[in-house]
Design goal:
With 792 residues, the protein is α+β, with helices and mostly antiparallel strands. Strands 1-2-6-3-5-4 form a 6-stranded mixed beta sheet. It is 40% helix and 20% strand. The longest helix has 23 residues. The protein has 4 domains: 183 residues, 2-Layer Sandwich (Cytochrome Bc1 Complex, Chain A, domain 1), CATH 3.30.830; 140 residues, Ribosomal protein S10 (Alpha-Beta Plaits, 2-Layer Sandwich), CATH 3.30.70; 189 residues, Cytochrome Bc1 Complex, Chain A, domain 1 (2-Layer Sandwich), CATH 3.30.830.10; 165 residues, Cytochrome Bc1 Complex, Chain A, domain 1 (2-Layer Sandwich). The radius of gyration is 36 Å and the shape is elongated.
Length: 792
């Protein structure tokens, strides 16, 4: 019965001395006590429930009795009071005088409630006037009944005859009795004691003969109601309201705050999945019949209205239920009373919530929901009839619910009990394989922009978000630690919300893109993304340089407008997508993370899309390329390899690499000061790559020495000792990677199988003999600018 709206803050608990609790008095209504100092006057409130007295009358019972009580109090000479009806009861607020006979005041209020209504009494006319005013406020449309009742806004369900005195008395006798009335007092303790004593000195009250409607009395809603909302709603637009009723109203104040939060999941999901939707109102109300939450959004004209409206309704339904579940069973009355600035409001809130909580269950709330959609004027020609539009929306809503019940992505999970964090990876298996020369590096830039936006937006809620890009995967990784008192499932949902909101964020700020350009450029310049390496990758995978290295940018990072970044992100979000989760508690936690993340993603009938077919693996272009001017003298030497030979190539790279490897033996005599070997590229376009650093005077000799080493290996110089040392090095590298949860997460996402056993020496020699030909090498040297030339 108290409209909570979407309060800006909801403390976890009220001050300890504010709400003492409920004082049960023998044969009198209980008193909700709010002890507080500082108010110039104390306040008295009365909460009366009419739920279940005559439900067919709608709000008429509460309005009529509020009129009777108001008239009686006014004729008694009482001042500084208000009487406010809602659907299921009414509330009285009285500001107490600075001094006076509290017995007389309580007696006046008691008589206004308990005196029988008789024919020709002036309060009968007062009730009739109130009902006449109610009839002048009819529901705009019968379809709005659920919304109006949930918002506790009394409206007429249709004109009716004014009730006679007998009917009004029957309503009064059924509702203004023990079990349906609670007093509230807010102020200094002396005022609380004075009011309590006055109630005790008064006559006993009659027990209720009509059982109070407890939680669950009206947890039934129409699945879909559609009405004509013109002219309040523009042509082609719509207003969508989801109403959720619960048997327990206790969690609703906190749930309303969550739903109404500007950066919360509900608003973020609507922005990303239904960009034309905007949150209009969130209202939470409570009565002895249960609680009600109403969430309303306006949706402007869209290309496919039925689909957009159904998606918006589904999102609101999901988020409302989740917010209620997460809110738990708080003491809403105590919380809201603590927030009240005016003592009248504090007494009112305390009294009503004491009545509500008196019969509320703290078990899991039973939920029921319904959707009400108001449509603006039709824009089609000829306009569809109301029945047809309702049928179309019903089908769209049912399809949306069914679609969202099916997971949008493939999920793989692994439980690692005892770890300090939970890890999640959401990414596209398409990676950079669809990129060509014209857009090489765009995926890396787009993912970097998402990471920058997440890092600076303040919406990560304690989770760390970072980008991840390879030729065969691109996405975001999130990890988070448990907060104090946080359950494993709550941790999972928090991390999932942070990752989902970051990945689906469609409002990428230009500043985030600018920072991403700088970060990618810096990373590329400090790593394998140098100009020489760009030349190398262009030769290894002609037309597709980002296959070998995702940060290779053939046209420059400034070559794409921000709109190109947004478009690339939209393409990634359309799927396909894959999720990997490293839970740190149990399977239930992993499932909570998967469910929480899934609701952020685009759900389409028929399931996920497939990656666009990428071009066939191009043939590499061996040869020695012109020296690239640079600050140092270095050289890249690469050997394209077949996908089936990748494991053998990794062992050979291990034999070449390191301070005691084959490259060290060939170059450590002073020809070079650094060297390394590794395998790069996707499965179908891999290459064994050697990098050496030397002085300008020894660079050519160092390259020649490496080419000579390759020739000796091709002819059988690879020994069992080389194989054993390489196997140990590769195993150590794998162990180092496996010690990092991020790497384990990536391997889980990829579906990597157990490492292949160390190939026998004969297999390695056969690989070297077959593929390590000097004519198949790609060589790209660099030289200081002053001495740049073309190598022979």
């Amino acid at each position: 019965m108290l409209a909570c709206g979407a309060p800006s803050r909801v403390p976890s608990a009220p001050p300890a001395a504010v709400l003492e609790g409920l004082r049960d008095l023998p044969s009198r209504p209980p008193v909700a006590v709010v002890a507080r100092d500082g108010d110039p006057r104390a306040a008295l409130a009365v909460a009366v429930s009419t739920a279940g007295v005559d439900d067919e009358q709608g709000a008429r019972v509460a309005v009529a009795l509020a009129g009777v009580t108001e008239d009686r109090l006014a004729r008694s000479g009482l001042r500084d009071f208000t009487v406010t009806p809602t659907w299921d009861g009414y509330r009285v607020r009285v500001l107490l005088g600075e001094s006076g006979d509290r017995d007389a005041l309580v007696h006046t209020v008691r008589d206004a409630l308990l005196t029988p209504v008789v024919a020709s009494a002036p309060e009968v006319d007062a009730a009739a006037r109130k009902l006449a005013a109610l009839d002048r406020r009819p529901l705009r449309d019968p379809a709005l009944a659920d919304v109006a009742r949930c918002a506790e806004e009394p409206s007429s369900l249709g004109h009716a005859e004014a009730p006679d005195a007998l009917s009004v008395e029957r309503w009064r006798a059924a509702s203004q009795v023990l079990g349906r009335v609670v007093f509230g007092v807010a102020g200094p303790r002396r005022e609380i004691e004075a009011v309590t004593s006055a109630l005790l000195r008064g006559a006993a009250w009659t027990p209720s003969l009509v059982p109070l409607a407890r939680g669950g009395a009206r947890v039934e809603l129409a699945p879909l109601r559609v009405y004509d909302a013109a002219p309040d709603v523009a042509p082609g637009a719509a207003r969508v309201t989801v109403v959720v009723r619960t048997t327990s109203p206790l969690p609703l104040a906190a749930a309303a705050a969550t739903l109404g939060a500007a950066g919360g999941p509900a608003t973020a999901r609507l922005r990303d999945l239904v960009p034309t939707a905007s949150l209009r109102r969130v209202t939470a109300t409570a009565s002895t019949a249960g609680g009600c939450l109403a969430v309303t959004v306006d949706v402007s004209r869209v290309e496919a209205p039925q689909g957009a409206l159904a998606t918006a309704a589904t999102i609101l339904r999901q988020e409302a239920r989740l917010a209620i579940a997460d809110a738990g069973h708080g003491t809403a009355g105590a919380t809201l009373a603590a927030l009240a600035h005016d003592p009248r409001e504090a007494a009112d809130v305390a009294a009503w919530w004491a009545l509500v909580e008196y019969g509320s269950s703290r078990d899991d709330a039973t939920l029921a929901d319904g959707v009400t959609i108001g449509l603006g004027a039709a824009t089609d020609s000829p306009p569809a009839d109301a029945g047809s539009r309702t049928a179309q929306l019903a089908v769209a809503l049912e399809n949306a619910r069914g679609t969202w019940q099916t997971p949008a992505v493939e999920v793989v999970t692994q439980v690692e009990r005892g770890q300090g964090t939970i890890w999640l990876l959401l990414g596209s298996p398409c990676g950079t394989l669809a990129e060509a020369d014209s857009d090489a590096g765009l995926t890396a830039l787009a993912i970097a922009a998402l990471g920058e936006q997440a890092r600076t937006s303040g919406r990560a809620d304690g989770a760390a978000i970072s980008g991840w890009v390879t030729a065969e995967g691109a996405g975001l990784i999130a990890h988070a630690e448990r907060h104090e008192g946080e359950s494993p499932s709550a941790l999972a949902r928090r991390a999932a919300d942070a990752l989902g909101a970051a990945f689906m964020d469609s409002a990428i700020e230009p500043t985030a893109v600018a920072r991403a350009r700088n970060d990618v450029a810096l990373t590329a310049s400090q790593s394998d993304g140098s100009r020489a390496f760009a030349t190398l990758t262009a030769a290894l995978t002609p037309g597709h340089p980002s296959w070998a290295f995702p940060l290779v940018v053939s046209r420059g990072l400034g070559g794409w407008p921000d709109g190109a970044v947004v478009s690339r992100l939209a393409a990634l979000r359309r799927g396909p997508l894959r999720v990997a989760i490293l839970a740190n508690e149990d399977e239930a936690q992993a499932e909570a993370a998967a469910r929480g993340l899934d609701r952020w993603l685009v759900h389409t009938p028929g399931g996920q899309m497939a990656c666009a077919p990428h071009a066939p693996v191009p043939a590499a272009k061996p040869g020695t390329y012109a020296a690239v001017p640079a600050g140092d003298a270095t050289a890249w030497i690469a050997l394209p390899i077949q996908s089936a030979s990748r494991d053998a190539a990794a062992i050979v790279a291990g034999a070449l690499d390191g301070s005691d490897g084959l490259l060290a033996r060939a170059l450590s005599s002073g020809l070079a000061y650094e060297w390394s070997a590794k395998v790069i590229g996707p499965t179908d376009a891999s290459a064994l790559v050697v990098h050496i650093g030397a002085s300008p005077q020894t660079l050519d000799a160092a390259v020649a020495q490496v080419r000579g080493l390759f020739e000796r290996l091709r002819q059988g110089a690879f020994s069992e000792d080389d194989r054993t040392r390489a196997g140990a090095r590769v195993a150590a590298d794998r162990l180092d990677a496996a010690l990092q949860p991020r790497e384990r997460l990536v391997h889980l996402w990829r579906g990597d199988v157990a490492a292949a056993p160390l190939p026998p020496l004969a297999a390695l020699r056969e690989f070297l003999s077959r593929e390590l030909h000097d004519g198949g090498l790609v060589i790209v040297p660099t030289r200081p600018s002053a001495t740049a030339n073309v190598t022979p």
